[in-house]
C-alpha cells in the first residue's frame, strides 16, 4: 500500500496534457493481441477513410510520464488520414515502470526486454502481427518511431527485430544496449557513454541472427537537451554507420527548415540537429502539424512530416520493402547471434556508389547495393528519467516536474530511483 501510494504521488508531479489534435479516424484500445510477456497495452489508430487494401503501419512509442493519448499530439494521425496508413501506440503500465517509461535497459538484473522474443519487445511484435491478422496491414512497410524512452525502445526494436522494420525514426535516442541496468541508464542519459562505432555495431549484430540488410534510420536531437545528452545522437549515428558499413563522415549536410540535416549512404541514414532546442518531439502547429503538449514542442519544424517522408509514406508510390508475406509465429526465444566481422573500421562500403540507387530499401553490411529484403519480427526499449539542468529554452524537459516548476538534479535522481525501486515487479 505504501509503495503504490508513493508511486501515485510521484506520478502526480508529472505534467499531464490532454489530446489537443485528433485525426478524423478511430483511436481505440485493443484488449487482446497475442503474446504479451511485457504486459503492455495496445492502442491503434485506423485512418479515415479506412485503407482499402494492405496499408503501412507506424509504431509510435511514447516517452516517460506520457501515455498513448498524449503522444498522439505529435501529429501522426492527420498524416495517416491523408496518406492511408495505420498507427499503433504501445503503452507502458505503471506496474512495469512507475514513470511510464519503456524499460529499454531491462528491469533490475533481468535483461529480458533487450533479448529478442522476450519482454516488452515481444509484446510490440505481437501488436504488429495482430495488425496484419486483424486488418491485413502490409508487413513489408512497418516503421517504428519514438521519443526519449520511446526512442531508446525503438532502438531495441530495430536491433532485436531488424527484419521486421523498413525504417526507424528516433528523437533523443540512446544506442541499443548502452545500459542493462537502472544505474547504467543514468550514465547513458547524461553525460552519455562513448564507445567505438565497431563496439556499438557488434551489440546490434549480437541481438539476432540477422546479417543484414538493416533498416534505414533518421536520428533527431535537440542540441540543448538536458535530459538525454546530445552526445547520444553521435553515438547512435556511429552505431548505425558501422552497422551499415559506410564512412563515418556524412555525404552531405544542408539546412532544412532552419536546422542542419546530414545524410549518409544515399539516404540510408540521416541526422537532424535541432539547434537550441531541448527535450521534446518537434511539431509545427501553425502548419497543421501536431499540437504542443508535455514534451511536444513547437520548433517551427514538423519532425513527424519529415519522418513520414523518410519512411516513404508521402510519396507517389509505395516504398519498396521486405517481401515478407504474412508473418509466421513470433520467435519466442533469442536466436543464435551472428556477430559478423566488425573490426575497428567500417566494412568496405563506398556510400557514393549507391547515391543514385534511390533512397528506399535497406542497406547491406557488406557495402553491397540496395536490394530487396525480407521481414521477420520486432523489438523493445525506454526510460528517460535523467536529471535535467536549468531550462535554456521554453521546451519542457524534466520528466517529473509539474508545469512551470523546477527540480534540482539530485532531487530528480532521487525521484527516479525511488520510482524504479518501488515499481519494478509486474502485476
Question: Explain this structure to me?
Answer:
The chain has helices spanning 2-12, 68-71, 76-83, 119-135, 149-160, 182-189, 197-205, 231-244, 303-311, 409-422; strands spanning 26-30, 41-46, 57-61, 86-91, 142-147, 167-171, 216-222, 252-256, 259-264, 269-274, 281-283, 296-298. By secondary structure, the chain is of the alpha/beta class. A ten-stranded mixed β-sheet has the order 1-2-4-3-5-6-7-10-9-8, with helices on both faces. It has a two-stranded parallel sheet with strand order 11-12. A hairpin with a 2-residue loop joins strand 8 (252-256) and strand 9. It starts with a helix and ends in a 5-residue tail after the last helix.
Helix content: 10-25%
Overall pLDDT level:
78
Q: Reading side by side through the largest sheet, how are the strands ordered?
A: 1-2-4-3-5-6-7-10-9-8
Shape: globular
Question: What structural class do helix, strand and pairing data support?
Answer: alpha/beta
Q: End-to-end distance, in Å?
A: 14 Å
* Strands, total number: 12
How would a textbook summarize the main sheet?
Answer: 10 strands, mixed
Amino acid at each position: 500500500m505504501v509503495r503504490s501510494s508513493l508511486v501515485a504521488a510521484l506520478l502526480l508531479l508529472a505534467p499531464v496534457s490532454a489530446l489537443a489534435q485528433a485525426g478524423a479516424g478511430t483511436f481505440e484500445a485493443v484488449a487482446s493481441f497475442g503474446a504479451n510477456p511485457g504486459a503492455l497495452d495496445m492502442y491503434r489508430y485506423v485512418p479515415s477513410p479506412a485503407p482499402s487494401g494492405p496499408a503501412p503501419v507506424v509504431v509510435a512509442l511514447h516517452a516517460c510520464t506520457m501515455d498513448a493519448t498524449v503522444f498522439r499530439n505529435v501529429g501522426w494521425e492527420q498524416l495517416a488520414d491523408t496518406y492511408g496508413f495505420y498507427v499503433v501506440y504501445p503503452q507502458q503500465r505503471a506496474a512495469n515502470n512507475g514513470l511510464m517509461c519503456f524499460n529499454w535497459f531491462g528491469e533490475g538484473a533481468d535483461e529480458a526486454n533487450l533479448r529478442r522474443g522476450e519482454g516488452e519487445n515481444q509484446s510490440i511484435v505481437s501488436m504488429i502481427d495482430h495488425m496484419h491478422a486483424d486488418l491485413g496491414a502490409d508487413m513489408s512497410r512497418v516503421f517504428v518511431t519514438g521519443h526519449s524512452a520511446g526512442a531508446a525502445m525503438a532502438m531495441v526494436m530495430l536491433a532485436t527485430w531488424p527484419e521486421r522494420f523498413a525504417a526507424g525514426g528516433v528523437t533523443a535516442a540512446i544506442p541499443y544496449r548502452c545500459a542493462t541496468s537502472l544505474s547504467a541508464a543514468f550514465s547513458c542519459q547524461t553525460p552519455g557513454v562513448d564507445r567505438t562505432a565497431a563496439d556499438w555495431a557488434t551489440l546490434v549484430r549480437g541481438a539476432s541472427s540477422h546479417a543484414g540488410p538493416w533498416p534505414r534510420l533518421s536520428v533527431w536531437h535537440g542540441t540543448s537537451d538536458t535530459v538525454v545528452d546530445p552526445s547520444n545522437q553521435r553515438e547512435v549515428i556511429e552505431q548505425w554507420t558501422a552497422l551499415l558499413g559506410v564512412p563515418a563522415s556524412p555525404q552531405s549536410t544542408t539546412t532544412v527548415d532552419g536546422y542542419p540535416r546530414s545524410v549518409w549512404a544515399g539516404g540510408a541514414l540521416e541526422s537532424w540537429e535541432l539547434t537550441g532546442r531541448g527535450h521534446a518531439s518537434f511539431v509545427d502547429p501553425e502548419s497543421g502539424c501536431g499540437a504542443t503538449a508535455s514534451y511536444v514542442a513547437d520548433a517551427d519544424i514538423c519532425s513527424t512530416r519529415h519522418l513520414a517522408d523518410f519512411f516513404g509514406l508521402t510519396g507517389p508510390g509505395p516504398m519498396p520493402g521486405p517481401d515478407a508475406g504474412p508473418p509466421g509465429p513470433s520467435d519466442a526465444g533469442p536466436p543464435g547471434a551472428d556477430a559478423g566481422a566488425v573490426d575497428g573500421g567500417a566494412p568496405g562500403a563506398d556510400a557514393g556508389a549507391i547515391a543514385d540507387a534511390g533512397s528506399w530499401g535497406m542497406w547491406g553490411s557488406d557495402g553491397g547495393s540496395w536490394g530487396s529484403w525480407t521481414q521477420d519480427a520486432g523489438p523493445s526499449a525506454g526510460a528517460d528519467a535523467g536529471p535535467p539542468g536549468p531550462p535554456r529554452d521554453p521546451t519542457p524537459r524534466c520528466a517529473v516536474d509539474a508545469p512551470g516548476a523546477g527540480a534540482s538534479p539530485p532531487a530528480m535522481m532521487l525521484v527516479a530511483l525511488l520510482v524504479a525501486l518501488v515499481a519494478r515487479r509486474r502485476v
